[in-house]
Amino acid sequence: MWNNFWFGIFPYVCFAIFVVGHIWRYRADQYGWTTRTSQVLEKKWLQWGSPLFHFGALFAILGHIGGLLIPESWTRALGIPDHVYHTVAVAAGTIAGIVLVAGLVILLARRFFYSERVKVVTTKWDYVLYALLTVEIFIGMWQTVAINVFGEGYEYRGTISVWFRQLFILQPDPSLIAGSPIWYQLHAIIACLLMAVWPFTRLVHVWSIPLAYLARPYVVYRRRYSPDRPTPREKEGARSSR
Known about the structure:
- Helices cover 66% and strands 0% of the residues.
- The longest helix is centred in the middle third of the chain and has 33 residues, at 82-114.
- The protein has helices at 2-28, 46-69, 72-77, 82-114, 116-120, 124-149, 160-167, 174-178, 182-197, 232-240.
């Protein structure tokens, strides 16, 4: 029963919150649709932590997409042996995880210990977001290092990956993931929780890529004027006052 809920119903509940929450947030809080950057308060640690975290997260997400969405039959058809795929995936995942953890540690230290000014502007949703991210990343690193590097390993492409792809056709088989190690189950549940809280946090800025600039037929340039030279508006005002 619990497996059916966590792996058959819960993902769709979180996805529904994800969609409806974004619509509500955009309609009710457009001015808050930002990263709420604290760069003006402290940037020394931010300039190190932010790039590490974002690049690590990007490669970790790409790794998850490759591992969950690409069936093993496809890689075999391309002539990639399973052990080669596994070795490359674990090595790349370990490197991405180390970079991601380094960035997260710097950002956490900066926000909660190093800068009081940054801590003051931290919202309750920031606490929820950072807590979920910390647990999710820790579990992900445990899977990669403890289970797949130093442990016996676990072949998730025949179980968890199949379950994940089944979610898109509305026919998930919870038994596929229920038989996996508990760390993999927790990783999936917390990923769903992150999806549910996404619309209410600073993560909404991910969707604010300024694609409109690509369609503009012109670019507006602003000219700099020196203090000792009047601007066009000042010149016009001087002429009209004569």
